[in-house]
Write a structure and sequence with these properties.
It is a single chain. This protein has 761 residues and is of the alpha/beta class. The protein has six domains: 92 residues, LON domain-like (Archaeosine Trna-guanine Transglycosylase, Chain: A, domain 4, Roll); 71 residues, no CATH class; 55 residues; 185 residues, Rossmann fold (3-Layer(aba) Sandwich), CATH 3.40.50; 85 residues, Helicase, Ruva Protein, domain 3, CATH 1.10.8.60; 192 residues, Ribosomal Protein S5, domain 2 (2-Layer Sandwich). Strand 22 and strand 23 form a beta hairpin. It is elongated, with a radius of gyration of 46 Å.
């Protein structure tokens, strides 16, 4: 049945057949109208044909009509009258009276579900009586639209379902959802009322919270909005912000009740914790930087010069408007013995440049994830140490100290040193990718300072990316200056003493440095000074002495015990077969006494002293050279017949390796076989070949400093190491004589005492 009816729009309201309502509209003389729901100027396709029962005049003169819903009507073509009113062609669709068995089954199920809802809600019987009075299945389905719990869109979908059976199915679906929600609420309420234990009470509270969130939709939204605000405030790069918003969208869709929400929130917390847009304001003042470095450290001129150069170049680029090159980052690596100030200078660099300082110790790190982070597929995954360092620094351009980079290990969990290749490469670290964050991090603004004791254990590709500055140790005068200016005041403060309470001369400082320590750095020296001051503080605190206390040599001996280190070169080399060599260890330069002896027996060579393969080969070369040049060395050929040789390098408990002991072994064997002792003032170093060539070696400065500390005055070096003396302090060069050799003959001419007169004849 079709008809033309006046269209009355209902904004965000849905009227169903059977409903009575009063509207403040002008229906004119119309007997029937079409009520159509409207939302944001969009009309539903199905409305309700309503009977105009009465015209009502409201107080104030407004006109209203009382309407009664009859049945559904499908809206068709629209026509606007001259008076502005809108009429539509309506296909009226009353519900059919005959129904099939399926519809009757749905009707019975619907009534049963509604009865359960009313029972849970505590109905007083009036609504149940109203439902029982409805006999038509279509009208029964429409009662679902009366519920205030049903949303506008669900009501419109119910109105637009013209088929009675389908409408009953849809209404039954809505009522089942309401029943399930009420049953959950009742179960939670019953658990609480029955006096459940603590775990049950917590479960109730969580469920109650979920219900509230579901009802109001506010709590999840507040968490999401909080993260959205933090993401905006973090000023992330575009790619990072897109990743953060993508994860935030996942969190918003799954809600707080999901188990994965905690993982997403942790990830977002880490993304926000990275200081993407924060940078420390650098103080680009080379003169100020030099003053800070000089105030904190004595010596270390190479390091100080490099830092001042870095600041000066950056200052010029900034003043002249040159765009910062992300590939020009400084990767300084300080290599030297312990106690030479490598780690502490990092803080001074940060203070001189106005940057934040973060220290990362890499000693013993064997898991690659410590550098790159864990992938988020693992339980308990975390970002790598670099991300954590940036979080702690709260800036993207801190000074990061990579301590003990030579002690990084590798095992089945990966090779951390390989992961460091990207971090320490200025051409790559502007796009470093942490496995956990999975976004690019710009590390080009970070000033990396790496430290190591030895360069030999640093992988070649990693060392190639570093700008190496060597710490070769201090002279005795430098140690005394450091002790006076830095160590002594610090130990006075740590032991509760004032400067005016204790007097200690530089002469005694030198005695402590030479007789109680033998190191490249000053760490042990500071410990000895601390011991001396602790015992002095004990005497002052117990009233045994009164301040000021003058510490003399007897007080030093009493506090530190007997002398521990001696200049024993003269004693050790007094007999033929002992030569003084110079070596470099993990703790700096050192003096080695190579001893050789011969005995009757099967020809052969015995080596002791925990020598490495390279050092063993040097001993074999030395013996072969001496046997091959017996005439040149004036050695009796009978000396090699039925005799075995033994070469020993004390101390036997310390592993040793390297080629630089070659000339020392040749000298020791030559001294043994010629009966000419080695000069006790001579120390030597250099690699030797079978032809007697002396090849260059490394660690010249450390070896020369060790020779100077041991009281040697002559040092034999390979000719090609002549230029390395520039690194040796001037005061050491002035106190020593250097002999540069290209062949073993030149070494022996300097090292051996003159031949006895009886042999010369």
């Amino acid at each position: 049945m079709s008809s033309r009816l006046l269209l009355i729009p209902l904004d965000d309201v849905v009227a169903f057949p059977g409903m009575s309502l009063t509207l403040t509209v002008d229906a004119g003389e119309e007997e029937r109208v079409l009520l159509v729901p409207r939302h944001e100027h969009e009309f539903a396709s199905v409305g309700t044909v309503a009977q105009v029962n009465d015209l009502v005049r409201l107080p104030g003169g407004a006109r209203a009509v009382a309407l009664q819903g009859l049945h559904r009507g499908v809206a068709g073509a629209a026509h606007t009258m001259p008076d502005g009113r809108l009429y539509v062609e309506v296909e009226e669709r009353p519900d059919p009276v005959p129904v099939d068995g399926r519809t009757r089954n749905l009707e019975r199920e619907y009534r049963a579900v509604v009865e359960e809802i009313l029972e849970l809600r505590g109905d007083d019987g009036r609504i149940s009586a109203f439902l029982r009075s409805i006999t038509e299945p279509g009208a029964l389905a429409d009662t679902a639209g009366y519920s205030p719990d049903l949303g506008y869109e669900d009501k419109v979908s119910l109105l637009q379902t013209v088929d009675v059976t389908e409408r009953l199915e849809l209404a039954l679906k809505f009522q089942r959802e309401r029943l399930a929600e009420l049953q959950v609420r009742k179960r939670i309420r019953d658990d609480v009322e029955s006096g459940a234990e603590k775990q049950q009470r917590e479960y109730f509270l969580r469920k109650q919270m979920e219900s509230i969130r579901k009802e109001l939709g506010e709590d999840d939204a507040s968490v999401v909005e909080e993260y959205r605000t933090k993401i905006e405030e973090a000023a992330m790069p575009e790619a990072v912000r897109e990743q953060a918003e993508k994860e935030l969208g996942r969190l918003e869709r799954m809600g707080e009740q999901s188990a994965e929400s905690t993982v997403i929130r942790t990830y977002l917390d880490w993304l926000i914790a990275v200081p993407w847009s924060k940078r420390s304001e650098e103080r680009l003042d080379p003169q100020h930087a030099r003053e800070v470095l000089d105030a904190d450290h004595a010596g270390l001129e190479d390091v100080k010069d490099r830092i001042v150069e870095y600041i000066a170049v950056k200052k010029l680029r900034q003043e002249r408007g040159i765009v910062e090159d992300k590939r020009s980052g400084a990767i300084l690596t300080l290599i030297g013995p312990p106690g030479t100030g490598k780690t502490s200078i990092g803080e001074s660099i940060a203070r001189a440049t106005g940057r934040k300082f973060v220290r990362m110790s890499l000693g013993g790190v064997r898991d690659e994830a410590e550098i790159r982070g864990h992938r988020r597929t693992y339980i308990g995954a975390l970002p790598g140490r670099l991300v954590r360092a940036l979080r702690d620094a709260e800036t993207m351009n801190p000074v990061i100290m990579l301590d003990e980079v030579d002690k990084v290990g590798a095992d089945w969990r990966g090779d951390p040193s390989s992961a460091l290749l990207e971090v320490l490469d200025p051409a790559q670290n502007h796009s470093f990718r942490d496995h956990y964050l999975d976004v690019e991090l710009d590390l080009s603004g970070v000033m990396f300072i790496a430290t190591a004791n030895m360069a030999d254990t640093i992988p070649g590709p990693l060392l190639d990316r570093m700008e190496v500055i060597r710490f070769d140790g201090y002279t005795t005068s430098e140690k005394v200056a450091i002790a006076r200016g830095y160590l002594w005041p610090r130990q006075l403060e740590r032991n509760g003493l004032r400067a005016e309470e204790v007097e200690f001369s530089d002469e005694l400082l030198q005695i402590v440095a030479t007789e109680y320590t033998r190191e490249a750095g000053v760490r042990q020296l500071e410990r000895e000074l601390g011991t001396l001051l602790r015992k002095t503080a004990t005497k002052i605190a117990s009233g045994q002495v009164e301040a000021p206390v003058v510490i003399d040599l007897d007080a030093v001996r009493d506090a530190l015990g007997r002398q521990r280190h001696f200049q024993e070169s003269a004693i050790r080399t007094a007999v033929p077969g002992v030569a003084t060599g110079l070596a470099v260890t993990g703790t700096g330069g050192d003096v080695l006494f190579v001893e050789a002896t011969a005995m009757q027996g099967k020809p052969g060579l015995t080596l002791t002293g925990q020598l490495g393969d390279v050092m063993k080969e040097s001993a074999q070369i030395a013996l072969s050279y001496v046997r091959g040049h017996e005439a040149d060395l004036d050695v009796d050929p009978v000396a090699f017949e039925e005799r075995s040789f033994h070469v020993h390098v004390p101390a036997g408990a310390i592993p040793k390796d390297g080629p630089s002991a070659g000339v020392t072994m040749v000298t020791a064997l030559s001294s043994l076989l010629t009966g000419r002792p080695v000069r006790h003032t001579v120390g030597m170093t250099g690699e030797v070949t079978l032809q007697g060539r002396v090849l260059p070696i490394g660690g010249v400065k450390q070896k020369v400093l060790a020779a100077h500390a041991a009281g040697l005055t002559d040092v034999v070096l390979p000719e090609r190491n002549r230029g390395d003396l520039d690194d040796v302090p001037q005061e050491v060069r002035d106190a020593m004589t250097f002999h540069f050799a290209m062949t073993v003959d030149e070494v022996l001419a300097v090292a051996l005492e003159p031949a006895p007169l009886r042999q010369a004849a």
